[in-house]
Amino acid sequence: MASGRPDHPRPGRAAPDPGRLVLANQPNRRLARSPECLLTLSHVRSVVPMTMMSPDPQTALRARLAASSDGVLETLAAEHGLSVREAAACLPPETGLEVSGAHFLEVLSDIASWGEILLLTHTEAGILECKGALPAGTLGHGYYNLRGAGPLGGHLRPEACAALRFVSRPFMGHESHAVWFFAASGAVLFKIFVGRTAQGGLEAEQVARFNALKARLAAAESPHGE
């Protein structure tokens, strides 16, 4: 229902300045119109320093991980509204390297000769771990088929892997090395960790193999092939 008020200003009154911000929800309308309650947008910008603005999620997480790269990255990713892949990219550069998912088969074929490793999946439902040697696989029907006498086996789609990241960082206070396999969504498909000895230390030969594989793929993806 029309209010009957004209859309144009009344004679003798200036049109409202769109560059001025009127404080709303004032019970006294005359007070709301008073000069003390009028702020221009430039005033707002001048009284709210940039340092009071929250940093973007990546910047905040980089600062957190620069102080300590330990912690459950899935939890940190959720807290900052990031995918796990985006969160992993916030790790300090010295902790890892991301390479194309095109290396999926090459990486799994290499790991198959390492001996006993730890394969881990982490979803919102929980964490599953399996220790054993990764069997050599064969391609068939669109899958990379893992068949062996050990506990690890299954059928993997190579094209589902968009990227891999070599991650070396402390976890729960202990040194760790792992290859993380990412889906296009940024979620983790699974992780393969370097195995440990009965005393809890890392298998030295596997650490050497891990570093050699990382260096080889880094060279393969370098623009100069170095």
From TrEMBL:
Xref: InterPro entries: Heme_Transport_Util_sf, HutX-like
Pfam families (alphabetical): ChuX_HutX
Compositional bias per record (Basic and acidic residues), positions renumbered to this chain: 1-10
Ranges where the record places region Disordered: 1-21
Signal peptide extent: none
Protein name, UniProt field: Heme utilization protein HuvX
Organism, as annotated: Pararhodospirillum photometricum DSM 122
Taxonomic lineage from the root: Bacteria, Pseudomonadati, Pseudomonadota, Alphaproteobacteria, Rhodospirillales
